[in-house]
Specification:
- By secondary structure, the protein is an all-alpha fold.
- The chain has one domain (8-144): Hemerythrin-like (Four Helix Bundle (Hemerythrin (Met), subunit A)).
- Helix content is 77%, strand content 0%.
- The chain has helices spanning 13-34, 38-65, 71-93, 99-126, 130-141.
- The chain is elongated.
- It binds fe (ii) ion (2 copies).
- One fe (ii) ion is lined by residues 15, 19, 55, 59, 113, 117.
Amino acid sequence: MSILPDYLRTEVLTFDLHHRWFLILFRHLEDNVKAERWGFADWACEKVGRYLLVHNGCEEHSMQRFQYDHIAEHKKAHTFFVRRWDQISEATTQRRLDLSDVADFRQALIDHIASDDQRYSDYFERTGRLLQANNVLWRDGLALMP
Ligand SMILES: [Fe+2]
Ligand SMILES: [Fe+2]
């Protein structure tokens, strides 16, 4: 997947880039599990786990900074993803990963981006903060890029 489909774009470009990276890494993981290249599969798992923490932290930080009012429920969804990915990583380490779990995870994350993430994006847009959010994240988030 080279670009995000329109319905997944938040227009906060740093976040869109992170989201795109997730989709690329899921594909990388799936391809390497199918080819039984477990070293690459471990690598992809570790990167997804790390970028979940980075990405979730960036989103939560910007939601707080721009006083978005659904932070608690959004954080809850992020916590679910981190825990679920830990289980997937563990299964990969033990070489018993079921790829349908990766497909389910990807779909859940896509649903989150399409609904929950779109809500803060709409809020930033509605309150005139979209450009500021982009500026702040571009400056502060570059060091945290995948
Ligand atoms: Fe996100
Ligand atoms: Fe999110």
